[in-house]
Amino acid sequence: MNLALPISDYPLISYGDYEPASEVGEKLTRKLALEKNYLKGSASDWLPTVDAAFRSLRDECQEDGWDGPGSSAISNQAIVITEKVVRGLFRILPTGLPAPDIMPEADGEICLRWVVDAEQELSLSIGVHGKINFAGQFGRQGGIHGWQPLDTTSPTALDRSLQEITKYVARLFPSVSRRPA
Q1: How many angstroms separate the CA atoms of 100 and 47, rounded?
Q2: Strands 143-149 and 131-138
Q3: Phi, psi for 100 (deg, rounded to 5)
Q4: Residue 51, CB half-sphere, CA atoms under 13 Å: how many?
Q5: What's the number of CA atoms in the CB half-sphere (13 Å) around residue 9?
């Protein structure tokens, strides 16, 4: 099922096949849809948007069952790690990229997702296990999936562990300019 919400001056926004299993999940999906469009078109300023999404995760998803029976709580540790990853990506990705969708997952991890169209997208799944699981489709260029070790001990170590991931994100948006060094 696709979730589409009217957002003031914006056309309907679709959130793929995600189907919340509870009222809390539905509420969170609506909040994330609203936050996704905050400062839309101003990708160089997406940190306020993602900060709001992380506040929602803390408010809505830190107890087991947040998305129905069997869903695991999103731990504060998972949120902190994902915040570091988002800030690291923002620091090293090309200027002008759109903010990722930030979605809680029923297994206690957090998904960062960029979607260009039905044939081009990248999803990163981040938890407390010290790695990023990823899957991407790049149209006629094919797809990728795997995992990448994640080192959050320092900004330099984090940047090194995100280098391969940034190449995949940049593949989705080839016309976006590079940040000055």
Answers
A1: 10
A2: antiparallel
A3: -75, 155
A4: 6
A5: 5
Does the predicted model carry a pTM greater than 0.90? no
Res. 164: pLDDT tops 90: yes
Rounded to 5°, the CA angle 13-37-122 comes to 65
HEC secondary structure over the chain: CCCEEEECCEEEEECCCCCCCCHHHHHHHHHHHHHHCCCCCCHHHCHHHHHHHHHHHHHHCCCCCECECCCCCCCHHHHHHHHHHHHHHHHHCCCCCCCCEEEECCCCCEEEEEEEECCEEEEEEECCCCEEEEEEEEHHHCEEEEEEECCCCCHHHHHHHHHHHHHHHHHHCCCCCCCCC
Average pLDDT, the chain: 81
Specify whether the CB–CB gap between 147 and 131 falls below 8 A: yes
Structure tokens at 105: 């997952």
10 Å CB burial of residue 49 (0-12, 13-18, 19+) is buried
pLDDT tens digit string along 42-51? Answer: 345 677 888 8
